[in-house]
Amino acid sequence: MIADFDYQFFIEVLVGGLLSGVMYSLVAIGFVLIYKTSGVLNFAQGAMLLFAALTFVSLVERGVPFALALVATFAIMVVISIAIERTVLRPLTNKPPITLFMATLGLSYIIEGAAQLIWGTQVHGLDLGIEDVPLEIGGVLISQFDIFAAVVAAGMVVVLSLFFRYTRIGLAFRAVADDQFAALAVGLRLPLIWATVWAAAGLVALVAGLLWGARLGVQFSLSLVVLKALPVLVLGGFDSILGAIAGGLLIGASEKLAEVYIGDYFGGGIESWFAYVVALVFLLIRPSGLFGQKLVERV
Amino acid sequence: MTFLSTLKAAALSAAMIVSVALPSAHADEQYFPLQSYRVGPYAAGGTGFFGGFIDYLNLINIRDGGVNGVKLTWDECETQYEVERGVECYERQKSHAGAAAWNPLSVGIAYAMIDRIAADKVPLITVNHGRTDSTDGRVFPYVFPLLLNPYSETSGIVNYIASKEGGIDKLKGKKIVVLYHGSPYGKETIPIYELLAQKYGFAVQQIEVPHPGNEQQSQWLTIRRAKPDFVVLRGWGVMNPVALKTAVKVGYPVDHIVGNVWSNSEEDVIPAGDAAKGYTAITTQASGNSYPVVKEIVKTVYGAGKGNLEDKSRIGSVYHNLGIVNGILNVEAIRVAQEKFGHRTLTGDEVRWGFEHLKLDPAKVEALGAKDLFHSINVSWDNHEGEGYVTFQQWDGKKWNVVSDWIAPDWALLRPIIEKSAEAYAAEKGIKLRTADDANAVTTN
Prior knowledge:
The complex is a heterodimer of chains A (299) and B (445). With 299 residues, chain A is mostly helical. Chain A is built from eleven helices and two strands, in the order H-H-H-H-E-E-H-H-H-H-H-H-H.
């Protein structure tokens, strides 16, 4: 039986799963940024991703050059981030996390609605100029586009990690995440920090939106990719960028292998819920995730 | 749709909703309650279909002054393709007098309405979709899956693949993979593919893609390993472009993928870019704007500034043309019913009678300006599908091109299965099977 096992196919599924996982990580990183500084699970991240991709592709289709459209979209995301901070987050400072979570839930519907209101409901193709034909490496087919996405994700992790660890504003982010009252007491400007981190999440949404948009087309369903990020966050930890990457890889690989090798025993189509099974098991064993910060509270 | 035009549409919708609330109905008006979806995940399809439907109703009003002088009216209620909103719209719109038929273009909403419309005696049109056994008019007097039910679609696709292989006997020994959406809609044809595989001697492997279908790497690697001769794509929404892109990614030839009727629109291929070139899909109505009826809509309706599509480049798209064909079928059913009951506002039950006598042969279709847009329809009191023919279109990167003749599904093979399923439903619900005499008894007020 083992002699009949198709190792090459196994490797192909595994590599494909790992590369898909990187795409999940890209979305998860946006969640991590917000959670790290405000303790809020930003449910609007998927809607931001949709808005960014739709804005970009609509500008390009109206004849705006690629680079200019990229800059303009980022500028729009920054404006939106500042508006969110002013109108939603600032009035809710020091409110319980569930209140802020509900606010982001509401925001996601508002952003989705605004995206369709402004840019219309049509679906769009998005060509980033990267071939999506397979490369054959040792008999295993690997997508060029997925490799590109993995490189982008790796680059983003490195930049964000350095930013948080070595810059003053990065340190300020971490201070705010630890204790908002203390951060305010020592003179940190909470509104500025929140606006900045939402702008950074907007940048992540733009990058993830472009990569996912090139894969799926730019359409309403883009906002549903958040569902792929949630098990990644549970597994990797809500406040760890490295955890988002590791979680993405694990979820991607395990769901693809499960679909191919045990899917038939359950009637097929198991990968969407299998990811949550993996996440739930991790949650039971390690509630803060693989790389998440363990909370220690004095009672 | 731009921001301003959307606001304008919203204001118009609000005005129309107000008009619904008012007791209305002229003696010479026939009303269509439209449970449309112009926002939300499926808005692209909704705007095309309802746009085409409204464009045709407008054509009849502007060009002919209505159907034999009876003006067609309608209003829209936004469902966002959600079942509970669809039911809410139904409850809101049903009080309007003179309702001709419901056309929600949503399997979920249609299922939720079946008992309600039977009680209210107003037809429910599920063109190209809906539950297959509603074809049996003995059990479902008010439901009409016009032109194509899912079983006929399956048979049509297999017949097309057979024609590509050189005949039905050449299917023996071939392998077909069906990649289906993980939903009741996607699963509905599983037994029929098994049945046809047994009958014609081909192997079939059916693989599920979980909703919404934005990840298909494992499914396509499995397909590559299975090395099928053809893949049938029974998708919906984002699943379709992702399937085409992933097929290219794993090196499967796109020209060996055949899409079903909900994988056949521009919205399914444009997001896939070059990966969709060579992809073929089934349809009951050809796309394009060269058909006389479409040209007339452009000239008469859009010329008068009453066109429903903001983006005129979508005129003649798959969903727009489906809406036009749906408009033709609804209007002609009213015309048939008017010949029996008089040129006046009809009751829902009278329109039901009209649908049950809707017979448009190719000559009549040509007279309606729809030659080659769709083939024909032959509805009867017990066959609510109406023996629609199908054709196949191939995407060249910019537009769909028809690549087959009109193909007839194997209705004789499918009918006993449909009847068995419908009878089981009747037994479960305690429904007495209707006879031809029952079908001729019509409520006229």
